[in-house]
Write a structure and sequence with these properties.
Radius of gyration: 22 Å
Oligomer: single chain
Largest sheet: 8 strands, antiparallel
Strand order of the largest sheet: 17-14-16-15-19-20-18-21
Mean pLDDT: 92
Number of helices: 14
Distance between the termini: 46 Å
Strand content: 15-25%
């Protein structure tokens, strides 16, 4: 029999002292805004449930009042996926790791738990997720529901690491979902955009903590693209950043190591990750926003500022890094065999246009998975992400990028800026109809709809 270690958190199934979720509701709460400042929502009410029972009661109350319902995470999506003028479910009390099952290799966590807290708790137990993205400010449910991913030759997105979940549906019912229980709902809800209900808890596959050695080094664009297949095949996790207006890239290779641990030094880590990657980059972005003509020169300086380095540490300290400079982002998932051609067209576009792009273009990989709305569903994938500093005109650059990406069969990241709608997306995902059928069954009245979901999923 598996032994589960109960782990204290701020929101167990029973809540806190029987306090009802509606007790935290406000009359006309303040507007909700996302991290990038691209979305503002004005909900009629907001509530912060501390348990599955309180969450279910809040959904039932909203249904009785005829309100739509959306759950907000920490606002790191650039799209209005969580926006509502009805009931906004806030995450701050539905938190905590609920159980660790060492024998099964799983951890069960409340939906509003930040990834940072999950990673730190797992490390205390000597455990780790297999793969993760490059920041950990998001809630676990917000990250998985929009398709957050890192880079990996064999290991896939956060959603692909889910083994079970608990879902509060439109009538306030609670469904336990896994490959064995409600398997059709489980398949869809791992990455469900909040369209099927509100997730109250997630169970992830975990493994004994391991060490990763990161090797970061500059490399010319021509060499990276020529060796791309080799670099992906030879490394468990490979990614690179191309600096527009230059022929320069920064590469990162993460591979498991026998040790010993050799983490970044406090001073050297601060210099690279805080002073250069955040502080100096923030200044460069501000200068570029005020004087766009300076951006190509700043890009050349930025691309040469980061030197080669190697370090070994536990996974979340290698996969993730601080991101304090605020930006807007578009990311497309392309078929593996088309990605470098698309990237080459993007490079040519920047070189031949008047666009002044101060942020590097990020390139990552993922293996095919079996999640209906995953951007890697059914195909090996390369992700190409473009960014612009917040407050800088980005629309024309993003629109031109999107035309290139869609021409090569690209699928937009659900939580990042794009203009695609259901007429395009239904054809881009072979299992789109499967997801739509689950949605029709669980939420026929569209309790969890909002304008963004109507655009991307239909109504």
């Amino acid at each position: 029999m598996a032994v589960s270690d109960a782990v204290g958190g701020s929101g167990g199934r029973g809540g806190r002292g029987g306090r009802d979720a509606t007790a935290t509701a406000r009359h006309r709460p303040r507007p909700w805004r996302n991290w990038a400042g691209t979305v503002t929502a004005r909900p009629a009410r907001s509530v912060a449930p501390a348990s599955t029972q309180e969450l279910a009661a809040a959904v039932r109350a909203a249904a009785a009042e005829g309100l739509t319902v959306k759950a907000a995470g920490t606002g790191h999506s650039f799209t209005p996926a969580a926006a509502t003028d009805g009931l906004l479910i806030r995450p701050e009390r539905l938190t905590g790791v609920r159980a660790v099952d060492r024998e099964a290799g799983t951890v069960t966590v409340a939906a509003g738990t930040p990834l940072r807290h999950l990673n730190q708790t797992l490390a205390a137990y000597g455990l780790s997720l297999t793969n993760m993205g490059d920041i950990m400010a998001q809630t676990v449910s917000g990250a998985t529901s929009t398709g957050t991913h890192g880079t990996g030759r064999d290991s896939a997105s956060l959603a692909a690491q889910i083994t079970a979940l608990e879902l509060v549906t439109a009538d306030g019912s609670v469904l336990t979902c896994s490959a064995e229980q409600n398997p059709d709902v489980f398949a869809a809800a791992r990455l469900g955009l909040g369209a099927l209900g509100v997730i109250s808890e997630l169970t992830f596959a975990v493994e004994p903590e391991f060490l990763l050695t990161a090797r970061e080094e500059p490399m010319p664009y021509a060499e990276v693209t020529e060796r791309f297949d080799e670099l992906v095949a030879e490394n468990e996790h490979f990614e690179f950043y191309w600096f527009p207006h230059t022929g320069n890239c920064s590469t990162k290779r993460n591979n498991r190591s026998q040790g010993p641990a050799a983490p970044l030094g406090r001073i050297s880590g601060w210099f690279e990750d805080e002073l250069l990657s955040n502080g100096a980059f923030q200044v460069a972005c501000a200068v570029g926003r005020a004087a766009p003509a300076a951006i190509p020169g700043l890009a050349r300086l930025s691309s040469r500022a980061l030197s080669a380095r190697t370090y070994t540490d536990i996974p979340y300290k290698v996969f993730t890094s601080p991101r304090r400079v605020r930006f807007v982002e578009m990311e497309y998932a392309l078929p593996r065999d088309a990605a470098l051609t698309a990237l080459g067209e993007l490079k040519t576009l920047v070189e031949r246009s008047d666009f002044k792009v101060g942020f590097p273009v990020e390139v990552r990989t993922a293996p095919a998975d079996d999640i209906p709305l995953s951007t890697a569903s059914g195909r090996d994938t390369v992700y190409i992400a473009v960014h612009m500093y917040r407050g800088t005109p980005y629309q024309a650059y993003f629109a031109a990028t999107e035309r290139i990406m869609t021409a090569y069969g690209g699928r937009p990241h659900w939580g990042k800026l794009h203009t695609r709608d259901v007429s395009h997306l239904a054809g881009a995902y072979p299992r789109f109809a499967e997801f739509a059928a689950v949605r029709d069954r669980l939420d026929p009245e569209r309790r969890f709809a909002n304008p963004y979901l109507r655009r991307v999923l239909g109504d």
